[in-house]
Amino acid sequence: MKIGFLGLGNLGTPIAENLLQSTQQLYVYNRTAAKAQPLADRGAVICSSVAELATLSDVVFTLVSDDAALQAVTAGEEGIAANLKKGGVHVSLSTILPATATSLAQLHDEHGSHYIACAILGRPEAARAKKLNLLVSGNTDVFETIKPVLEQCGAANIWAFGSEVGAANVAKLCSNFLIVSAMESMAESIHLARQSGIDAEQLMHMLTQTLFASPVYSTYGNSLLKEAFLPAGFTLKLGLKDVNLINEQASTVGVQLPFGKKVQELMNQCVEQGLGEHDWTAIALASR
Amino acid sequence: MKIGFLGLGNLGTPIAENLLQSTQQLYVYNRTAAKAQPLADRGAVICSSVAELATLSDVVFTLVSDDAALQAVTAGEEGIAANLKKGGVHVSLSTILPATATSLAQLHDEHGSHYIACAILGRPEAARAKKLNLLVSGNTDVFETIKPVLEQCGAANIWAFGSEVGAANVAKLCSNFLIVSAMESMAESIHLARQSGIDAEQLMHMLTQTLFASPVYSTYGNSLLKEAFLPAGFTLKLGLKDVNLINEQASTVGVQLPFGKKVQELMNQCVEQGLGEHDWTAIALASR
């Protein structure tokens, strides 16, 4: 299978590198072409347009910043849907609304190709370590066909969320919401502990050995203790984009999210304070 | 050492049972005397007053509902401080403010006895399984002396938080705050997932195998999925008491807790809706 990859950002690049290790031919496209050069140096072929990428590939991965960017590269005469061969598969890795996934899947369907939602749990270092968790939804036959390619992205686990194409996007939004909520609650606890004169490192050590012995609490707890907000692993601005999607989805389906609204408010404060390019753990600074 | 135990509630009873297994003589006192009878049937001696309990014991454990109740059994002529022998130790297991611990430690000091703060992480079933985590603070020499007795309470781990006597109370408040925040964020995620048409069981299964593989997320996540709010493991009313203490402590030390205020608001709504005796996971019902 010929593989295409569009979107060589912080997370896209290590995933494309993983694919390059196991595929005969990797086609890449990035709006900022310079970002594709290191991959080209290792054998990837740089395409000059989205349409060229789609035409040359059997399976095209996209990882872009938001719903509008994904729409822009997928729809239209020069987009992926119009140029991918019949039976080709568009694997969408971006964090977007389930409704966007549904409409793009419909568009691919009209062109005789397929759209699979594949949300990623994991930061760039997890991609490099091939420890990503992939949440997948869409046509189950298509999923089975491309599963070996998904594994080559750097997946430790692939979680199938069924044939409703937006399901993986919902799961991803819920996951990110739980992460940001855990961050905010840890930030508040650490601040309360310190101002109360107790050793917050010891508190977090105890908690991450017992009740909260999990990767999110260990990793983000550590960042919060160190106030290691730069360089960003995942920027607050991108985190806020996800939190906005979470609240939009909640509003669409009529669910109240008291914590969802609160983290949105706190992250907006952070962006207003000029912290948009800090790591999203900088949400800790909002309530200081 | 002669051990005394005051406060035979849901959690006090299994801890007293554990102590009874390894001590020669256990004295017990409970305001509602009938609750002491099962322990007496197994060899414990029921005392008729707090003063009698304190007079007969070398180490007295207390586990009562709040700061005022602890003050009431500790201070005054009939209280523990006035009746415990010189060098005796009061081990306070209740969830209270650090300032209360400090003032009671001072009172014991004036009477030539000691006060150790020993906060408990764990529900009654963990006490029965001897899997409690104990968070301890206070005079370190005294702590070392009574450590074997603390182990007999049903401790899997004992975490020493130093000589500042209120430290364990702060650690406990922070822990409970993290738990209730995790509960609320899971409740919101589960509701959002279900209303968006995805399988919340599968979502939580994935999360508790990966990013959130921890006891709090597994246990409370499971309760939230099942909406198993009765019978209560820990009542919402008691949880709200702790959340009130968390917010009071934050206010004392000048810390803003956006999530702390929000959970307080949600739990107050639940109590107003008559859910005070439900399990505190019923916080999930506030935003429906």
From TrEMBL, chains A, B:
Residues 166-284 form the 3-hydroxyisobutyrate dehydrogenase-like NAD-binding domain. Gene3D superfamilies: N-(1-d-carboxylethyl)-l-norvaline Dehydrogenase, domain 2 (1.10.1040.10), NAD(P)-binding Rossmann-like Domain (3.40.50.720). Residues 2-157 form the 6-phosphogluconate dehydrogenase NADP-binding domain. The keyword Lipoprotein does not apply. The active site is at K172. Keywords: NAD, Oxidoreductase. InterPro entries: 6-PGluconate_DH-like_C_sf, 6PGD_dom2, 6PGDH_NADP-bd, HIBADH-like_NADP-bd, HIBADH-related, HIBADH-related_NP60_sf, NAD(P)-bd_dom_sf. GO terms for molecular function: NAD binding; NADP binding; oxidoreductase activity. SUPFAM superfamilies: 6-phosphogluconate dehydrogenase C-terminal domain-like, NAD(P)-binding Rossmann-fold domains. This is 6-phosphogluconate dehydrogenase.
